[in-house]
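Hey, quick one: can you model this chain's 3D structure?
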Amino acid sequence: MRQPQTGFDTERLRKQYLARRQFTKLKKTYSSNFPEIEDGNTPQFWEEKFTDAQAETFPMARDRNQTVVSLMQAGSNILNLGSGKGFLEALVWKKFADEVVLTGTDFTTKSLKKLKKQYPSYHFLQADLFKLPFKKNAFDTVCLIEVLEHISPQKTFTVLKELHRVVSPNGRVFLSVPINEGLEEMMPSNPNAHVRVYSEELLRFEVETAGFRVESIYRFTAFGSYYRLKKLVNGFFHLRQPNNLLFVLRK
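Sure thing. Here's the predicted structure for all 251 residues.
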């Protein structure tokens, strides 16, 4: 098979290896020998993204986050990796307030400063996803919501192994990624700095390789208006493919 010339070529090659169940070859594509989609994820890029105070207005994203919080339990010790503008924290606070212990991380500074003021009883800190500053088995619930698609393939399993390390035995990880977004067709524009082209099968391969068990999968489709109605209709007739996956994982 011809050596990939671009990051999108590599993503297509992963899809082919996965379909053929050539897992040894698939694992090799996560090395530095394979080209990757250009990575525009920097603290400066995300500081600009997080400057406005707009609430979560995208219906699919809110539905996904509400689903995550609906599956949480009072008394949990929660780690949210990539808190961003605090959309998940807002829902957690609304449902549980101080009935949970929540730690949020990000690699920006201004957004974390705002979150510390908004939720003084929760804990927020800058943290390196590739070497988390937490002890083994420290949390019973870990969230990685819309983050993994920003991680270089070379570092994907480093991040997943860190999640596996910090979540407690039989603890749960909530992990979501976009799918079917047509990233290659958007180029050279990449407004959200995504560096991966995920599918349900590929995400399952990665998390199971990292030692997780997939407990359940939720699929969400993007509708800009009449979201609930269109979601209901799509659930019956499957008129549109999902645009977002939420995996619930067990250690």
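One thing worth noting: The radius of gyration is 18 Å.
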